[in-house]
Amino acid sequence: MQAKYRHSLPQLNSSNLLLTEGGIETTLVYKKGFHLPEFASGPLLLTPEGTKALQDCHASYIDIALRHKRGIIVETQTWRSSRIWCDKLGFSENEMMKLNRRAVAFLEDVRREYETDTTPIVVSGNLGPLSDAYHNSTQRLSVQDMIAVYRDQVQALCEAGVDMLSIMTLADTTEAIAAVQLAKEFGIQILVSFSVETDGKLLNGVTLEDAIRTVDKATESYAAYFGINCAHPSHFHPTLRMMDPSVLSRIGEIRANASRRSHQELDNSEFLDRGDPTDLGRSFKDLIQLLPGLKVVGGCCGTDPEHVEAIASNVC
């Protein structure tokens, strides 16, 4: 299928910030009562009830973009859809690649229903880490090993017609390098988004600045831009203030958590910490001043349309 924006991404060709979504998976689990093994939302597309829930989630964020007359990036439900997750989720490799294609087709249907001239909808093919994002356990794999794992998924997403790729919630630069090299091979733009701990560093202790430099050096700066997701602004704001301006300018997307709690605390929590939507929205005003290359803003775990509306009201 033909990708609509692959060769002209709105966020790279506009001075206006684009929006993206909030924490769809946490909404599905804590508010809608769905069970998501391995935090994978893609299998919901195999049932009418799950498909309707996902459509409602995406529509709630698109409505915000429509009100503010801003573009929005929607992510496919494929964060847990590389072949390394097949056994854990009970899929064959062929079934998993079909699910990737189905996720793209689903969002293309959503785009046809909601897109307007003032609100372009970019469909991004979402890749995720190869292990638990809160536990760095893939260090034994080389870049080439990781390329082999991601290849089928990237090919499926690209052939299905995504506009771009994203790889999110990374705690390891090796996964990032593998994904960027594949994006380059397939001729598609990619966002690389790291998650940081409460000290502003990756799980393995690497600084965000060093992580970005490492990926850019290994890939000839091919990534369209970098991002931070699954962390509260209070965790990374001090880090941003100390970063080299040339590296800071490479950060183009922020998807913040609602909660100020650590990943370990959130992982062990039995309830959803929504934080303070108003405070989260205000924090993005400071981030805009710090990040000259910021292109896309939205939420991550614990956030819902109220949080994204608060963010949009402060920056749009």
Structure write-up:
This protein has 316 residues and is an alpha/beta fold. Helix content is 45%, strand content 14%. The chain is built from twelve helices and eight strands. The protein has an eight-stranded parallel barrel, surrounded by six helices. The model has no long low-confidence stretch (mean pLDDT 94). Zn(2+) binds at residues 230, 300-301.
Distance between the termini: 32 Å
Question: Would you identify the regions where 5 or more consecutive residues have pLDDT less than 50?
Answer: none
Task: Count every beta strand, where a strand is a DSSP E run of 2 or more residues.
Answer: 8
In helices, the fraction of residues equals: 40-55%
Task: Return the CATH architecture.
Answer: Alpha-Beta Barrel
In CATH, what is the homologous superfamily?
Homocysteine-binding-like domain
Count up the helices.
12
Rg calculated over all Cα atoms: 18 Å
Strand content: 5-15%
Question: What's this entry about, in short?
Answer:
Keywords: Metal-binding, Methyltransferase, Transferase, Zinc. By secondary structure, this protein is of the alpha/beta class.
Features:
alpha/beta, TIM Barrel, 12 helices, 14% strand, HCY_dom, Hcy-binding domain-containing protein, metal-binding
Layout: helices, strands, pairs:
Elements: E1 18-20, H1 24-30, H2 48-68, E2 72-75, H3 86-89, H4 93-114, E3 121-127, H5 143-160, E4 164-170, H6 173-186, E5 190-194, H7 208-219, E6 225-231, H8 233-242, H9 245-248, E7 251-256, H10 263-267, H11 277-290, E8 296-299, H12 305-315
Helix pairs in contact: 2-12, 4-5, 5-6, 6-7, 8-11, 11-12
